[in-house]
Design goal:
- With 244 residues, the protein is of the alpha/beta class.
- The chain folds into 3 domains: 4-46; 64-113, no CATH class; 130-240, Ribonuclease H-like superfamily/Ribonuclease H (Nucleotidyltransferase, domain 5), CATH 3.30.420.
- 38% of the residues lie in helices and 14% in strands.
- Helix 1 packs across helix 2 and helix 2 (20-26) crosses helix 3.
- The protein starts with a helix and ends in a 13-residue tail after the last strand.
């Protein structure tokens, strides 16, 4: 296939006084093709036309209304399940070679008519800029010491670019545990990130206030280290995804 670059090169050689045959060789194309582009002022990309018609009969035209009704009733139905059902209902009518066509059509329907999906924007991480933290209650692990269940919680902090981590043992999600965990992490990291994000835990966020502002003690801790404090929105764990 001839590219726009080849045609541009052909025309440069022709403009320089080279013969058609020589210009075609230097542009790596057949002489007849070169003559065609010499006489036509368009580039290959400008010759292309958009096809707005089907090249073959739609094999699912007669059944698509029923398929669409099933999808509206249960949008979670898989395309393969629907296709297998069509093959059972109409033996010999839908060959396995048409399955991918059917799957693409179902995917297109879901994209246009299916249930709305949550939109996630990719997070752009930079070295030393951002740290995220969270508490993990570990009681369900059933850890025992001397036969007694050891109920405990872990404070987990991670630099989101390098994934360098710090973990501190604690026994509640108190401000003291948060403060100790953050400071331990900063010492282990060997520095302070520009920003630190946590979820809406009560030790850091005044959840009952209208603006859900940060608590005074947490704000003071962040100001002491010169670190900008951030919080995630409620029920949006993806915003703290790296540590989650």
């Amino acid at each position: 296939m001839v590219t726009d670059g080849q045609v541009s090169e052909l025309r440069r050689w022709l403009a320089a006084g080279k013969s058609l045959a020589a210009s075609a060789r230097m542009a790596s194309m057949d002489k007849k093709t070169a003559r065609s582009y010499r006489d036509d002022g368009r580039l290959p990309s400008q010759r292309k036309t958009t096809r707005n018609y089907r090249t073959r009969t739609d094999p699912f035209a007669d059944v698509w209304a029923d398929v669409e009704q099933q999808l509206r009733g249960e949008p979670r139905l898989k395309a393969k399940t629907l296709f297998d059902d069509l093959q059972r209902q109409r033996p010999g009518e839908f060959d396995d070679s048409t399955r991918r066509t059917f799957e693409r059509r179902v995917a297109n329907w879901r994209a246009i008519h299916g249930p709305e999906k949550t939109v996630f924007f990719p997070q752009d991480h930079h070295p030393g800029r951002f740290a995220a933290s969270d508490f993990t209650v570990c009681n369900s692990l059933g850890v025992k010491i001397a036969g007694a269940v050891f109920k405990h919680t872990l404070f987990h902090c991670v630099l989101t670019y390098s994934n360098v981590e710090s973990v501190s043992l604690c026994f509640s999600e108190s401000f003291e545990a948060l403060s100790e965990g953050i400071q331990n992490a900063f010492w282990q990291f060997g520095g302070v990130p520009i920003q630190h994000r946590t979820d809406s835990l009560s030790a850091a966020v005044r959840n009952h206030s209208d603006g859900k502002s940060l608590t005074k003690r947490y704000s003071a801790l962040m100001q002491h280290y010169g670190c900008a404090a951030q919080k995630t929105n409620a029920r949006c764990a993806n915003e703290n995804g790296d540590v989650e």
